[in-house]
Task: structure prediction
Amino acid sequence: MTENKSVPLHKIPKGSRVLIVQVPEGKGKSQLIRLGILKGEFIRCLERLPGGTVVIEKNRREIAIGMALAKSIFVAYANTEQADGKVRKKNV
Amino acid sequence: MSEHLTTVNEVESYPEHIDHHKHFNATPVAEDTPLLKIALVGNPNVGKSVIFNYLSGLYMDVSNYPGTTVELTKGKYKDYIMYDTPGVYGISSFSAEENVTRDVVIEADAVLNIVDSVHLERDLFLTQQLIDMGKRVSVILNFKDELEREGITIDTIQLSASLGVPVFQTSAVQKAGFEQLDDAIINAQHGKIIQELHTKLHTMLIEVGSQAEALLVLEGDESLAQKHGIQVGNEREDLYIERRNRVNLIVNDVLKETKTRPRISTLLGHWAVNIWTGIPMLLVALYLIYLFVGKLVASDLVNVTEKHLGNEIWEPWIRSVVTHFIPLTSWLGTLLVGEFGVISMTVTYLFFLLLPLVIAFYLSLSLMEDSGYLPRLATLVDRSLNAIGLNGGAVIPLILGFGCVTMATITTRILGSEREKTIATTILQFAIPCSAQIAVVAALLAGAGFGAMIIYSVTIFAVFVAIGTILHRLLPGESSPLLLDLPPMRLPRLDNIVRKTAFRSYAFMKEATPWFFAGALGVGIMQVTGLLVVWENLLAPIVTGWLQLPREASTAFVMGLVRRDFGAAGLYALALTPHQVVVALVTITLFVPCIASLMVMLKERGMKEALIIWFATWIGAFVIGGIVSQILI
Result:
């Protein structure tokens, strides 16, 4: 795994594929896990709207995330080969 | 196979253990007790309602939007009672929808779990949770056709083996594979549960009645824990991550995809959330709606229906019939067919003015919903709504408000926090004119000219922003951020659109009609008893002095108490200058909402908050209307 510095989700450029390294604790976390947004998963930034709302893509699914939430999700850049591969990391 | 896929089935090698496992047996249901309750459960937009309608023959409000169907729909199919549950991503008590779905699932004898094949990874989380709840489950993989177009194949035999429940493939659009639904109900089975969870459930089962409840308590469902008087579990996160990983492994196992070119619908979906393409798309959408609702229906069609059918045919005819028995000048004659005649004017307004508009409006909204455009619009405007303490999701109640404020107020339930519900409700009650009102407003403004239209729009928009901003500053707490699963852009199904439009228009008319008649009757009685003059005299100083409108405009405000739109309609008859039109419309738009929406608000927001908002609209309307008047006139 590339040990890149982690950045908040609302800062990543459109089109980049990233690995989730941290999601916010608290009530919202369960919702994120259900939608498959959790540590160790790969996602792609599909769109970044002015003001910080982002749309991510994960396995053909598109999920819109508001700025307040996006800035508390931290991601690291992943190289394309890893992201496209079927490898999924366990993270418990 | 990893240790996480160690399943309960492996326990079967210990017969003495399996003996007492009544809740894990894998016998098909038909062999023991006859089935009673079948729940259709699935994520939002998986075609659940189409399957429900097919089975039960009943219609339910099919929606592309999570949250618009909080009501539970029940139907009958053969010897089964079918329940169509609100779409959820998992079962807990995070929202009103989840509460409904949770309660139905706990009670259900078997679950038909409808799954969007294209989004297997998302949907199987719920599937696994249903299995973990110890329910008999059959999985229906819907959208087989879309799966093929996306170049994906699913190994259903392997999937069935991994989950331990039967799997069927359907395509709701062509109703293909629906003949297997009988098999799906009969063969619903208990699926595989990992050993570790199984042990935990055992411990909890001693305390609560069912495996379903045991799991939910373990996952931290407070209301269920309270019901059984036990300590709530704190394992939600661990169990969720465990389940998520298990689902990911299963999906990796069964899913094969070949690269295909991006489809035009996918591209359209992307363009809708891009600022450069999204805004032009929004403008085009709004223009098309304007052409259809505002021009074709509101002016061209309504001109024919209202003027011709209403004023020229219906009213003279009913008047001639009634005056045959009752003189027009008598009090009863005035009530029935006079100026505010219950069966003359009211019928014309209701059926020849309102109804065509309501249908046109709901048709546009249904198209936006079912095409998948509405959630993308929510994403596009998310940041703007943040400024008034809401997130993009609030675009749903706000847009619905332009249809019916009452319906929109109910929909504020989908918002994430009490704070947002208060803000959205207040904005709806104040600054969003409902479709019936817009019709009258648009017609009056069209007569008053372009300048009047601009002043009116700017004023109402300013009030909208001001209320949102003030409440956002004043109310404690934080609003929830947007987290929205965007359904794929799909060509809407015509039959769904038609049924949905008919269903909503009917529901609206059913709700609105009595208030219209009551309003007309009320004002009619005030007219014949002389109370109307008393009221006009009472309001006269404010209306003539402060708002600078003719005395009769106060009648419109009386009508506004009963229905806002009816109030606006009362302004038709007055000869107002363009500036007076603006003042009157601003006042009546901001003025108290209709009785029906007040009732709903009382229910949703509680007595205290609802009454504060209600009285605030009184004061706000006359203060702001007056200010506009003082500036303009």
Observations:
- The helical segments of chain A are 27-34, 67-70, 80-84.
- The beta strands of chain A are 7-8, 17-22, 42-48, 54-58, 61-65, 74-77.
- Chain A has one domain: 7-84.
- The longest helix of chain A spans residues 27-34.
